[in-house]
What we know:
- About 55% of the residues lie in helices and about 5% in strands.
- It contains 27 helices and seven strands.
- Helix 13 runs parallel beside helix 15 (about 220-230) and helix 15 (about 220-230) packs across helix 27.
Amino acid sequence: MQTHFSDAALARPHIQRADKVLRSCVHCGFCNATCPTYQLLGDERDGPRGRIYLIKQLLESDPESQDASTRQQASEITRETQRHLDRCLSCRSCETTCPSGVQYHTLLDIGRQELERRVGRPWRERLLRSGLRHALVEPARFKALLALGVRFRPLAPGALADKIPLARERDHQAEHPTAPVAVAATPSDQALSRQGHSQQGLSRQVLMLEGCVQPGLAPNINAATARVLARFGIGVTPIQEAGCCGAIDYHLNAQQAGRARMRANIDAWWPAIEAGAEAIVQTASGCGAFVKEYGEMLADDPDYAERAARVSALARDIVEVLGEEIARDDRQSLAAAPDQQPLAFHCPCTLQHAQGLGGEVEKILSQLGFTLAPVMEGHLCCGSAGTYSITQPELSRQLRDRKLEALEANGPARIATANIGCQTHLSSAGRTPVSHWIELVDDALPETLPQE
């Protein structure tokens, strides 16, 4: 794609990055074929190719230019442009499809930030986005708000009420720790749960990003992960100072706040990394995809660039860690003989498109004896997409229902996934139960694996 940036514009780093992405695009349109919003709306501007043109128009325009045509182009950048970019899920399915390797998500982040600066938002949208950023990113605050939400759920707006578990689900979690959605146990209970498989005497240690909403919505996921890792002789070193990965701030166009969270996490993890931690494990694929890009996003920060690159290199989804352990383990008794009822796996976009790990969870589940039901349209997003299900509730609901129809087509008894956002969103329909896949593995594996 030909671009028309001035020399002055190309002196700015973000324009240089955008120019590189734009020039890699050959506007073939293959991306539209796998874009969820284009499939729903059929509008060129709601597909990747159209959005790329919109961002190109935005970045090449200048409302203060001496050139009349450039000023005219700038005047065409309106809320309408912003609406089409807001509808993008950032699922990155287009990147998996693209034969030219266009890094669409990089261009989208640049375009959204520039639109925020130039067009702004109505006060209601600013309030919603600020509220989401402040409510979701601090685990203790989120737990307190979630407890209030459960109590006053009938009064909440529909899009928000869908995300709040029913009181009976909270009670069910207390009796069944692998229940898919629940209000968190207390920190002491969670710590005890993590120690359910002893971490003592384990020479191999990893760090775990606990997440901001996951400890509140589904506290058993991290505990189950620690128990599974302990079976393979790997302990989890808790780092209480680490917090939200920064994705929520960053993708709500508060990029500097997101970068500050990245730096805080690097500072929190660094002593343990220097002490020999093997990996930084994520159980939420959305967080994992973001942490793996710390190195890229902080490459221009001389104080953090080197450490950020190291953190990204150590970031591993739990499927990568467990897959390696199973591959090197020659014990034949790992087959767990679980419940033979069929299971449908929903592979989150952040696992298959952003991290390139599509099919890896299914491989492990099959190795452990689970019966997997085939799933059509596995590449399409479920509509969760971080805060998208709240900022774009109607589109999100349509995508959720389409995804559930595909997942349920072959009658599974349960749906498994690898991201807390997808899990909560799919569960909100109140249909087939949804769990994190690592909880199912935790239940299926014997308490103690036989020695080699």
